[in-house]
Structures are given as structure tokens and as C-alpha cells.
Amino acid sequence: MASFHGKGAQASAEGAKSPKLLDQVRDRMRRLHMSIRSEEAYVGWIRRFILANGKRHPRDLGAQEIERFLTRLAVRGRVSASTQNQALSALLFLYKQVLGVELPWLDGIERAKRPQRVPTVLTRAETSALLGELRGVHWLMGSLLYGTGMRLMECVRLRVKDVDFERHEIVVRQGKGAKDRRTMLPLSLVDPLRAQLAEARRVHERDLAAGFGRVWLPDALDRKFRGAAADWGWQYVFPTLARSVDPRDGVERRHHVDESTLQRAIKQARDRAGIAKPATCHTLRHSFATHLLEAGQDIRTIQELLGHKDVATTQIYTHVLNRGGMGVVSPLDR
């Protein structure tokens, strides 16, 4: 089945062909307002699943083929539990949301157990050294990750309208779980952020003069509010250097910076600073929470700042307060 056509969908009276299966997946995900990254990941896993089963249509496959596929990922591919679970989520989405298959075996497939690990946290000195090796917009973005507790994608997707200099806060839109929240805007970043916005505005004005300047908007807001896409407030704080064609609708726009550029900058800064810990962009978020706890901030407030649904998720950062063996002094040191 080289073209991955869905079965069971009859041609219309006009003789139109049913859309390809992967196109059906994309259409369904877009109707549910799922992110472009989730779309790319799910389509990729579904394609791999079909190819791994000789291009047979998923309607002709079942629990045995899914289990075999996931086992092959774990044994041969040596993927992590989270990667294996993402593949399973993609296949469950295919069967339930696209093919409309409601079979008992779908709910019987177990997810891989993710190991419980404490997060990597930098000391204050290490954080300072890491940020000190960053330059320009990468320094500002890294400082925002540490100073606000934002996730990487929350930072790169930040819009102008969500930076409030008067209240010294940042509104994080569509965070994990599609939730909005507020976090602080560090006073030390006010002037650098104003300078970044001034540069972003110059870029936006040049785009407008060239007949562009319309940014991508979520939830079809560009149709609900005509002209909003070109409004300054909806522009990205960290726009990319060049415009590109949006794969979702073929429109040329200026997107936000690619998160991989900051990831590479953080890795290089870590190496230059001589930090042995496997520090990443997310490590700065972990360090934000841990350092607030060390300073005596209550855990409920930190939970709100991080956007955690359950305080139990936030409690993992209390490990730093135990300081080795629940704070007990070793008999060797007595």
C-alpha cells in the first residue's frame, strides 16, 4: 500500500478520492488545534508503523503488531520510555481519532514506565558562569529561562503583547496542557528586553513595508479579528532572521527563532564554562525552581509560576533541601 490510502471511505458522487491516511491524520490534528511539532511527530511514528508492517493498512493490524513495533523500538532502537510512549500515543490517536476504532485491546496496551530521576540543577555560581558565556539574544533568552522559569518553547513563542513592563510580569500563553499562567519579569532584564523589542519592531516595520508582516495566529484569530496578524502586539519577541513559508498554509511569514539555536548556544556555553553537569535549556527552569525553594519561597507559589497541575510535580525540587541523606550528618563526619 504505497500511498497509505484509508480503507472504508467511499468515493463521493462526483468520484472524488478519499484523502490519504496521513493527510487525514494532519487534518484531524489541526481541527483539534494540536501543535505543529506534535503533528510532525505523530505523522512520523504512524508512517514508521505502516512501513514496519509491510505497508499494510492499520485497519488490518491490531494489538499484536503495535506491541511488536513498540518492543522493536525498545530492544533494537533502544529508545527512551518517553519516546516509546510518544509512539504509542501517535498510534492510539490514529486508531481512535482518525480511524474511529474503539476496540478493547487499545486500552489494554501498557505504556512504558518512565524512570524517576531527580532533575539536574546548577548551583548559583554555575548558573552565573553559564549565562556569562552567552551573548546577545541567546544571553537574553537564557536569562529569561532562568529568571522566569519558562520552558524553552514558551520563551521562543513569546509575543510582544504578553510582556508587561508596568506590572513586571510575563503572561505565558498556551503552556503545557494548553494553560495560560503568569510569571515574573526580572527587573534586571527590563532594559535588555526593551532593546530586543525595539529591534523586533524595526524588523516588523520593514516586513510591513515589503508587503508582509503578518504573523501566524492560533485558533483562527486572523479570521475572527481582521488585521490582528499584522498588529505589533501579536508579533514574536524573538523573530527569526529570515521569513519562511509556513507548511500549514503555504503563506510566507516571519516565524519565531528556531529553538535549536538556543539549545546549541547553551551546550557551547556549558562547555566553555567547564560545567560537567549535562545542563540544557530545561536545566535553567529546574534551577529557577530549586533556587526559589532554597531562598524560602513557598512551594505553592512556585507551582503556580511553573504551571504545574499538581504540587506533587513541584515537590521533586525539594530534593536539594535534603542535602544528602535527608539532611542527616554522616557518622564519618562526626
Helix content: 40-55%
Describe the oligomeric state of these chains in a short phrase. Answer: single chain
Report the total helices: 15
What strand line-up does the widest sheet have? 1-2-3
Spans of at least 5 consecutive residues whose pLDDT stays below 50 are: 1-16
Summarize the model shown.
The protein is mainly alpha-helical and 334 residues long.
Annotation keywords:
globular, two-stranded antiparallel sheet, 4% strand, 334 residues, 15 helices, mainly alpha, disordered N terminus, 3-stranded antiparallel β-sheet
Task: Summarize the structure in words.
This protein is mostly helical. Helices cover 48% and strands 4% of the residues. The protein has 15 helices and five strands. The chain has helices at 21-31, 36-52, 63-75, 81-98, 104-108, 124-132, 136-148, 152-156, 190-209, 221-224, 259-273, 281-294, 299-306, 311-314, 319-322, and strands at residues 163-164, 169-172, 181-184, 244-245, 252-253. The strands form two sheets. It has a three-stranded antiparallel β-sheet with strand order 1-2-3. It has a two-stranded antiparallel sheet with strand order 4-5. Helix 1 runs antiparallel to helix 2 (36-52), helix 1 (21-31) packs across helix 4 (81-98) and helix 2 (36-52) crosses helix 4. The radius of gyration is 24 Å and the shape is globular. The model is unreliable at 1-16 (pLDDT under 50).
